[in-house]
Amino acid sequence: MSELRRLQAGDAPAVLAFELANRAYFAASVSDRGDEFFARFTERYDALLAEQEAGVCAFYALVAGDGSLLGRFNLYDLDDGAAELGYRVARHVAGRGVATANVRELCRLAAARHGLRTLRAAAGHGNAASHRVLVKAGFVPVGPADPAHLGGKSGTWYQRDLGLRR
């Protein structure tokens, strides 16, 4: 059993373990976070929690029954009823519907808890799995994503109106 819940200070060790264990897997489809991310993890993690506390972002962790992380699902730049969605799931649960189910749940939470009406997400052209997840979760393509936004990779922006039930 797993639970999607707000990221907390005590989650730091599990988040770091998740990122390290899946680093090569993630780097195959999205830009690598780089050694600097890991070297300054505590500082960066504290900054994320401060952004969450300020209401600028909302970070969620998909936590397994044993306390390990199965995924991260995040809302960035909450502003005027809209936000950007980002997510990643552990390699060992990829392809099992975990990302799709939890993106759908985050859409529900985005409307109910955060008062959001619209979510946007970008997926690189080489990341077919993310394109499928977004479409299955009710997002529609709305145009090209700037490579500067995707770590130098070209891609597509998707959007979902949260007033629509999917």
General description of the model:
This protein has 166 residues and is an alpha+beta fold. It is built from six helices and seven strands. A seven-stranded mixed sheet has the order 1-2-3-4-5-7-6, sandwiched between helices. The longest helix is centred in the middle third of the chain and has 15 residues. The chain starts with a strand and ends in a 5-residue tail after the last strand. The model has no long low-confidence stretch (mean pLDDT 91).
Series of H and E elements? EHHHHEEEHEHEE
Strand proportion, as a percent range, falls in 25-35%
Categorize the overall geometry.
globular
Q: Low-confidence parts lasting 5 or more residues at pLDDT below 50?
A: none
From the N-terminal CA to the C-terminal CA, the straight-line distance is 23 Å
Give me the secondary-structure topology.
Blueprint: E1 2-6, H1 12-21, H2 23-27, H3 35-39, H4 41-54, E2 58-64, E3 69-79, E4 82-89, H5 98-112, E5 118-124, H6 128-136, E6 140-145, E7 155-161
Parallel strand pairs: 4-5
Antiparallel strand pairs: 1-2, 2-3, 3-4, 5-7, 6-7
Label this structure with key terms.
166 residues; alpha+beta
Write a compact overview of the structure shown.
The chain is of the alpha+beta class and 166 residues long.
